[in-house]
């Protein structure tokens, strides 16, 4: 009998799309998302195992179809979009695309719970206030709510049922607050297997391209809510200050690829130890000229410093990928003679 594969959530599809688009493009997308959205997607990317080519292509195709559909909707409304999609893809495919668009445009509260196992939901909501449980069940599918309600302690079932029956309008901000709390609880009970290929490595590649403030925000949030993932990401990340972990030969190779003015700006934002290590791998004349350049330019905006550092980190990563230098991570790498 063939195994039944659970449908992907929109969040998982978004994570697959980010990885497929590549770190550079993904980092640009992150700039348009909220901190919460960045955190949720980062966790999904980190948890991701291998994605076969067929699934990846399917997600990309669905994304393209949604983009086309939403463009049609923006131009002429839903009815006009339906006609144009039918003309472009045929009636059957157009109906599927329109349904996806409608679903995307009308995401209901607690949508992230609708694909979860009822027994798991019961486990982590049964200690919530009866009014909170009633609010959650009111937004889920009746069959799923029934399974959850049946799994609650007997003395709690009647109280939750009563509150569902008397539930009145709930302010959107209250619903959103409950959603955020539940999402954090759910993420804390799901175990992550870091042995899968992809996952953390893909997230690290994205973070190595984002600006330093975004990187800091993501890592702080992960450290608070997903410390295991945060620790694994940090072990695999390379930031500009880690340049002192490179051997002298590697630093010299990096310096050959870096623009002098770019390096001067980048060094404005690091400590004396890092500066000294860089100067050590330059000729006395070049080091003196670099110090003069840094002094002459005066104060530099933090953003400019971070952007220069990030570009240099990009050069380091390219040299590593080309096998020209070795970047030690997670306590160093064993060398074989």
Write up this protein.
The longest helix has 37 residues, at 53-89. With 337 residues, this protein is mostly helical. 23% of the residues are buried. It is built from 18 helices and no strands. The N and C termini lie far apart (51 Å).
Fill in the keyword field for this structure.
disordered N terminus; 70% helix; mainly alpha; 18 helices; single chain; 337 residues
Instruction: Note the overall shape.
Output: elongated
Q: Give the mean pLDDT.
A: 75
Give the termini distance in whole angstroms.
Answer: 51 Å
- Helix fraction by DSSP (H/I, runs of at least 4): over 70%
Largest sheet: none
Into which percentage range does the β-strand content fall? under 5%
Secondary structural class: mainly alpha
Number of E strands: 0
Q: Runs with pLDDT <50, length 5+?
A: 1-6, 190-198, 330-337
Q: Which helices and strands, and how do they pair?
A:
Elements: H1 10-21, H2 23-30, H3 35-47, H4 53-89, H5 91-105, H6 118-125, H7 130-139, H8 142-151, H9 154-165, H10 172-189, H11 199-207, H12 212-225, H13 227-236, H14 248-257, H15 260-267, H16 272-280, H17 284-297, H18 302-321
Helix pairs in contact: 1-3, 1-4, 2-11, 3-11, 3-12, 4-5, 6-8, 7-9, 11-13, 12-13, 15-17, 15-18
């Amino acid at each position: 009998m063939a195994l039944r594969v659970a449908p992907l959530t929109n969040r998982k599809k978004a994570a697959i799309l980010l990885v497929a688009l590549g770190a550079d493009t993904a980092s640009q997308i992150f700039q348009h998302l909220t901190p919460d959205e960045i955190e949720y997607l980062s966790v999904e990317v980190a948890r991701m195992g291998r994605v076969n080519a067929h699934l990846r292509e399917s997600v990309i195709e669905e994304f393209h179809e949604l983009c086309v559909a939403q463009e049609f909707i923006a131009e002429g409304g839903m009815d006009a979009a339906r006609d144009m999609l039918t003309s472009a893809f045929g009636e059957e495919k157009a109906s599927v695309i329109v349904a996806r668009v409608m679903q995307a445009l009308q995401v209901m509260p607690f949508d992230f719970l609708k694909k979860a196992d009822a027994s798991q939901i019961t486990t982590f909501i049964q200690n919530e206030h009866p009014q909170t449980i009633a609010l959650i069940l009111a937004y889920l599918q009746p069959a799923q709510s029934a399974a959850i309600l049946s799994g609650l302690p007997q003395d709690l079932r009647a109280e939750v049922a009563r509150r569902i029956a008397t539930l009145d309008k709930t302010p959107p901000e209250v619903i959103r607050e409950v959603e955020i709390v539940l999402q954090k609880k759910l993420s804390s009970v799901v175990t992550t297997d870091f042995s899968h290929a992809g996952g953390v490595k893909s997230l690290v590649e994205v973070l190595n391209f984002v600006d330093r403030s975004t990187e800091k925000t993501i890592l702080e949030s992960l450290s608070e809510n997903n410390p295991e993932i945060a620790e694994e990401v940090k072990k695999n990340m390379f930031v500009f200050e880690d340049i002192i972990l490179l051997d002298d030969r590697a630093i010299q190779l990096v310096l050959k690829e870096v623009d002098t003015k770019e390096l001067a700006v980048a060094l404005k934002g690091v400590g004396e130890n890092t500066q000294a290590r860089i100067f050590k791998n330059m000729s006395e004349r070049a080091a003196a000229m670099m110090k003069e350049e840094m002094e002459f330019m005066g104060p530099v905006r933090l953003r400019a410093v971070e952007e220069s550092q990030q570009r240099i980190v990009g050069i380091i990563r390219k040299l590593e990928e080309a096998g020209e230098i070795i970047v030690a991570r997670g306590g160093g790498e064993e060398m074989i003679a």
